[in-house]
Amino acid sequence: MKKLIIAVLIANLTSCAIELPRPLCPGTRDYDVQVCRGEKHRVLSNFPFEAQQRARKCDQCIDIENNCYHGVPPQCRPQWQGYR
User: Fold this and answer.
1) Which of 31, 39, 65, 77 is the most buried (most CB within 10 A)?
2) Taking the CA of residue 74 as centre, how many other CA atoms within 13 Å lie in the half-sphere pointing to its CB?
3) CA–CA dist 84, 79 (Å, integer)
4) How sure is the predictor about 83, in pLDDT bands with cuts at 50, 70 and 90?
5) How many angstroms separate the first and last alpha carbons of the chain?
6) Is 54 exposed, middle or buried (0-12, 13-18, 19+ CB in 10 A)?
């Protein structure tokens, strides 16, 4: 009887210690920020002169998708894969 009580007690304690995964917020994916759970968006600041560096890279047609925020420059249009 003692062993049964100890086994039930151990099972009870371990079940309380294990945290079950909470369901996702409605309409979200698992990698989205879960606002209904209290998660917040992290906004990281730009490093110094990031905008100028990206503008130069955009003008040189380097990594067009990530560096050209204001459209593809005319000199890069023949190289850009998304241009049709």
Assistant:
1) 77
2) 0
3) 11
4) low
5) 78
6) middle
**What's the pLDDT at 41?**
87
pLDDT digits (tens, 9 = 90+) for 7-57: 888 877 776 666 667 788 898 888 888 888 888 988 888 889 999 999 999
CA distance 64 to 2: 71
Contacts 24+ apart (CB under 8 A), 15-20: none
> Residue 49 corresponds to which amino acid?
F
